[in-house]
Amino acid sequence: MVDVGAKAVTEREARASGFIKMQPETFDIVRQGTAKKGDVLGVARLAGIMAVKRTPELIPLAHPISISGCSLDFILDEEENRIQAVCTVRIADRTGVEMEALTGVSVALLTIYDMLKAVDRGMEITDIGLQMKSGGKSGLYIRKA
C-alpha cells in the first residue's frame, strides 16, 4: 500500500461512467418501471453507492477514506436502448477517489444486469472509464472524447 501520510489533504472529486445495452423490450421494462424484481434504477443506485463505500474491501490496495459525497445518476438513451450510469464521488483527503467512482459505476451496472437477466441475458456492459478527476498533486484530469 502506498504511504500517503505526507500528502496534503485536498478536496478531491472523481467521476466515472459506463453503459449497459439491452433489447428494446428490456429497455421499456426499465423505463416503465415494470421489472418483476422492482425499481431497477433505484436498487442499482443504492447498490452503486454502497459499493463506493466498500471499495477498500474489494480492491486490495485501496485506502479506506472518508467520503463526503456521492451521487449516482442514470441517463436513458432510447435510440441505442442503453443506460449510462454516472458516479461522482467527493472527499477531502490525502488520496484520490477514482477507484470508488469506478467501483460505483461497475456495481450499479451489474445490478441492472442482475435485475433484468431473466428477460435479457444478452445485455452488454461497456465503456466503463474515468471521465474526470480533480485535486491532489496531479491536479485536473478530463478524459478526451
Give a structural overview.
There is one protein chain. This protein has 145 residues and is of the alpha+beta class. The protein has helices at residues 24-32, 40-53, 55-58, 98-116, and strands at residues 10-21, 67-77, 82-93, 124-134, 141-142. A five-stranded antiparallel β-sheet has the order 2-3-1-4-5, covered by helices on one side. α2 packs antiparallel against α4. The protein starts with 9 loop residues before the first strand and ends with a strand. 37% of the residues are buried.
Quote the average pLDDT.
95
Order of helices and strands: EHHHEEHEE
Strand content: 25-35%
Q: What percent of the residues sit in helical stretches (DSSP H or I)? A: 25-40%
Main beta-sheet annotation? 5 strands, antiparallel
Biggest sheet, spatial arrangement of strands: 2-3-1-4-5
Determine Rg (CA atoms, Å): 16 Å
- What is the count of DSSP helices, taking H or I runs of 4+ residues? 4
Low-confidence stretches: none
| Class by SSE composition | alpha+beta
**Shape, per Cα inertia axes:** elongated
- β-strand number: 5
| Distance linking N and C termini | 32 Å
